[in-house]
Amino acid sequence: MKYYLAIDIGASSGRHIVGYMKDGELITDEVYRFPNGMDSVGESLTWDVERLLREVKAGIAKAHEKYPKIESLSIDTWGVDYVLMAGDKEIFPVYAYRDSRTEKPIELVHGIIPPEELYRITGTQFQSFNTVYQLYADKLAGRLDEATDFLMIPEYLMYKLTGVKKKEFTEASTASLVNVNTLQLDHDIFARLGLPERLIAPIYMPGESVGMLTDEVKREVGGDVEVVFCATHDTGSAVEAIDMETDAPYISSGTWSLLGVKLQSALTDERSRLSGYSNEGGVGYFRYLKNITGMWMIQCLRSELCPETSYADIAKMAADSNYTELFDVNDPVFMAPESMKAAIRDYLVAEGKPAPACDADYFNSAYNSLAACYDRAIRDLEFNTGRGYSEIYIVGGGAKNSYLNELTERYTGKRVRALPIEATAIGNLKIQMKRHGVYG
């Protein structure tokens, strides 16, 4: 029997899951889990990548204790964020995407490459935190002067395990730096923005081998294992986990909700840009999708209002509320407010709507607003692709929320197929297994 290890790291937690095939079924075993989160350092939001690496190694060691022979491992994380390197040394801090440092760089970048042109080249939805704006912020701060590489978070972690620096397609495609025709970093963008050409490196596809563990890491984790690329952007792996009966839209529901459909070629027309759709890398296709603020809002409200209450009880509480006033969940005021409750209240009041009266009202307003946003996004998707859809697949943590699923059906008029699975880890495992002909 062959065993594989998926290391799936999200914005709030990470998990190590071993997978293997038994009687034609994929069996998974979670061997390690750890918390994750951004750190506030002064006025900045950062990632402690050294702590992340320690957790990654600790989980590999746990996996080796239970499964001495593991064929391969791979790591997936969120997109856009990266570690600047000067040779083998990190350039700290490692900024998190919710940091506010890109306001000025956005204006400057768009003054050089208009947003509609940047979209035609890269097909990437405008987000204030896209890698292109973060790198330009680094340029303005002088942080690129000594930089030799920028490694996206999963690339960095795999480099620290193997000593090999390689870039992966699905993660790179979130950066607004990859040409949708060449599937490589775009030299013209780097040149026009004055970003050092030495930062450009070849991009490899999911399934590519990165390397074996270094001798030092082997000693730390108690064994050797090949490190390979899955779809290292977590949504890319999550989509690979969905066994669809029809070519339907999907929602990968977590801290972010990623709503989209698989396409064989990118759509970079102006209609797609204005409706906020992105063309992100998939495994042999593009993920034509929209980033929507997802359970982040519920997570923040829970932390602020009722941290001891389970998400299941929060959903029941919301369902008992009659308050259904809507707000735009994608408004920038909800990106990283000091108080999510205050941000929602102030937004609604400014719109001339009554303020929520109790905790349940805040949650119900958030759930209804999220479902209404799904409806708008689905309508745009159908218009942009020229196709109609009758159902939606939902995977990830949010798929377990039956109340939100009911609201999604009500607002969109589509049948919801909820698959409450560890979609990202399963997709990660499937890609590894297919390399050995073990799956599919």
Q: Structural class of the secondary structure composition? A: alpha/beta
The top-level CATH class of the largest domain is: Alpha Beta
Whole-number tally of structural domains:
2
- How many helices? 16
| DSSP strand tally | 20
Helix content: 25-40%
Span of the ends, CA to CA: 16 Å
Radius of gyration: 21 Å
What general form does the structure show? globular
Main-sheet strand order equals 3-2-1-6-14-13
CATH homologous superfamily descriptor of the largest domain: ATPase, nucleotide binding domain
**Multimerization status:** single chain
Largest sheet: 6 strands, mixed
Secondary structure layout:
Layout lengths: L3 E6 L3 E10 L2 E11 L3 E3 L2 E4 L1 H18 L5 E5 L5 E5 L2 E3 L2 E2 L7 H10 L2 H8 L8 H10 L8 E4 H10 L4 E2 H4 L14 H7 L9 E2 L4 E4 L2 H7 L4 E3 L5 H7 L9 E4 L2 E8 L6 H5 L3 E4 L4 E8 L2 H10 L5 H9 L20 H11 L8 H27 L5 E5 L6 H11 L2 E5 L3 H13 L5
Parallel strand pairs: 1-6, 6-14, 11-12, 15-19, 19-20
Antiparallel strand pairs: 1-2, 2-3, 4-5, 5-9, 7-8, 7-10, 13-14, 15-16, 16-18, 17-18
Helix pairs in contact: 1-5, 2-4, 9-16, 11-14, 12-14, 14-15
Defining traits:
six-stranded mixed beta sheet, alpha/beta, Nucleotidyltransferase, domain 5, 440 residues
Task: Characterize the structure shown.
By secondary structure, this protein is of the alpha/beta class. The chain folds into 2 domains: 4-235 and 424-435, Nucleotidyltransferase, domain 5; 243-420, ATPase, nucleotide binding domain (Nucleotidyltransferase, domain 5, 2-Layer Sandwich), CATH 3.30.420.40. The protein contains 16 helices and 20 strands.
